[in-house]
């Protein structure tokens, strides 16, 4: 029997730029001085970066060593995939079985709470700002635009009218050496017509380098890369051993867990800090004793993700399903002179800080 739920299938993850929205809730007479919220259960989001590498052969690849002295060239068109960084995000999702209403006494000084849009508790009597996705992180997810092997704008008249492929390769190689010579003359000051200033020189050098690269690609070919991120989300309720998250193939990229065209990517999840299991009567007694503001005390698990016995990820994560729940008495918030402020981790429902 599977001991985890596959919450979301394999899909392409587009960059998410918006921050998590939070909502301020006031405990006032209109709502009987009560605020409802949900505790989260842990879902683990496994993010895998996959790069599609497209190789385009250059028309003069057979002459690369003869004219340019280059041996490492692309000799045939092909596409292959590389599995890159694998990371794990601990994300809390509302647990419908653990939704509460906390009621404050009428004498409490202006009690309020911040909740996420889906009702997870962020803070009580304290301002809360959700974290934002950094521009640097977002830029890392941008795709690289595909490039072309042949840019006809760099073809000289001599190259265009050359008859055979061998003759074209010879002309292209001579053009590359002329460009290199021109660039060297500009840099050493030996050119007849030097650029008038530093910016102009920088622009001319850049254009010469682009022309040289475009012509060189005719011999070496070109590799373009497009990197995308794939997510798999699971909600664990017990230890996992060699559970298949997805499969990976250098020819196909990431494929479904049941597609034998790829090698399995395994997850092992082992509880290293877990609340002791209670008998049904004990669990019921504790549930009835919980009063006030209920929060999570998460357990902890060691997580390893591997492919072909190669470790892709290893780390620890807090798992609310492995922990227990406790309560803060409402009397803590009845001091009119110094109301208590409490911050929570919305992804786990655990207390982050109490300020008195």
Highlighted features:
single chain, 356 residues, alpha+beta, 2 domains, 5-stranded antiparallel sheet, 6 helices, elongated, disordered N terminus
Structural summary, described in words:
This protein has 2 domains: 4-56 and 80-145 and 225-355, no CATH class; 150-220. Helices cover 21% and strands 44% of the residues. With 356 residues, it is an alpha+beta fold.
Distance between the termini: 47 Å
State the low-pLDDT regions, or none: 1-20, 27-31, 141-145
Average pLDDT reading? 82
Sequence of secondary-structure elements: EEEHEEEHHHHEEEEHEEEE
For the largest beta-sheet, the strand count, sense and barrel status come to: 5 strands, antiparallel
Order of strands across the biggest sheet? 2-5-6-13-14
- Helical amount: 10-25%
Total count of helical runs of at least 4 residues: 6
Number of strands: 14
CA-based shape? elongated
How are the SSEs ordered, and which strands pair?
Elements (H helix, E strand, L loop, with lengths): L3 E10 L8 E5 L7 E23 L7 H5 L9 E26 L8 E5 L4 E4 L10 H6 L16 H5 L3 H24 L9 H23 L1 E15 L3 E10 L3 E3 L7 E11 L6 H10 L3 E15 L2 E19 L12 E5 L4 E6 L1
Antiparallel strand pairs: 1-7, 2-5, 3-4, 3-7, 5-6, 6-13, 8-9, 8-10, 10-11, 11-12, 13-14
């Amino acid at each position: 029997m599977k001991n985890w739920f596959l919450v979301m299938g394999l899909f392409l993850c587009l960059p998410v730029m918006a921050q998590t929205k939070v909502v301020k809730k006031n405990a006032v007479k209109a709502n009987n001085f009560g605020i409802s919220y949900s505790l989260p259960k842990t879902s683990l989001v496994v993010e895998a970066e996959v790069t599609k590498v497209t190789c385009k052969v250059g028309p003069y690849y057979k002459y690369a060593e003869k004219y340019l002295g280059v041996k490492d060239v692309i000799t045939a068109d092909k596409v292959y995939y590389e599995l890159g960084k694998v990371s794990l995000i601990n994300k809390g999702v509302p647990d419908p079985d653990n939704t509460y209403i906390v009621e404050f006494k009428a004498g409490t000084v202006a009690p309020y709470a911040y909740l996420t849009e889906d009702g997870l508790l962020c803070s009580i009597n304290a301002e809360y700002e959700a974290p934002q996705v950094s521009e640097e992180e977002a830029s890392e997810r941008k795709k690289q635009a595909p490039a072309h092997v042949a840019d006809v704008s760099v073809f000289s008249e001599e190259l265009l009218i050359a008859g055979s492929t061998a003759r074209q390769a010879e002309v292209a190689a001579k053009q590359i050496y002329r460009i290199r010579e021109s660039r060297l003359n500009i840099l050493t000051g030996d050119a007849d017509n030097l650029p008038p200033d530093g910016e102009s020189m920088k622009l001319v050098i850049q254009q010469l380098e682009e022309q040289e690269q475009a012509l060189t690609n005719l011999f070496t070919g070109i590799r373009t890369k497009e990197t995308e991120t794939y997510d798999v989300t699971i909600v664990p309720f017990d230890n996992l051993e060699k559970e298949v998250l997805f499969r990976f193939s250098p020819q196909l990229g990431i494929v479904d867990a049941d597609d034998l065209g790829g090698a399995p990517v395994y997850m092992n999840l082992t509880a290293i800090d877990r609340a002791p299991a209670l008998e049904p009567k004990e669990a019921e007694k504790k549930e009835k004793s919980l009063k006030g503001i209920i929060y999570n005390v998460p357990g902890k698990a060691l997580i390893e993700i591997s492919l072909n016995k190669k470790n892709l990820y290893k780390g620890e994560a807090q798992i609310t399903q492995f922990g227990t729940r406790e309560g803060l008495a409402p009397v803590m918030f009845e001091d009119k002179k110094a109301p208590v402020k409490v911050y929570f981790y919305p992804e786990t429902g655990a207390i982050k800080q109490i300020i008195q």
